[in-house]
Specification:
This protein is mostly helical. The chain has helices at 2-11, 14-42, 46-70. The chain contains 3 helices and no strands. The longest helix has 29 residues, at 14-42. The chain is elongated, with a radius of gyration of 15 Å.
Length: 71
């Protein structure tokens, strides 16, 4: 899956590259945010839950910024 994403970026240029890159960043940030929020809710390690709780807002901020690039 990741190699396919890299291949798509290598094959693109100009605005097609920009669009593909931003789309991939949005997807990656969404996935990471889901992972962090899931661990906050269901994680079994207190230190990792604390890390996830602290990291989730930063990921959300980056996701929001990436979405604005798409506008």
């Amino acid at each position: 899956r990741r190699q396919g994403m890299i291949d798509n970026l290598k094959a693109a240029s100009g605005t097609a590259f920009d669009t593909a890159y931003v789309d991939q960043q949005e997807a990656a940030l969404k996935e990471a945010l889901t992972l962090m929020n899931s661990y906050v809710d269901d994680g079994d390690n207190a230190a990792l839950r604390q890390f996830a709780r602290a990291t989730a807002p930063k990921l959300q901020m980056h996701r929001d910024m990436a979405e604005k690039l798409d506008d």
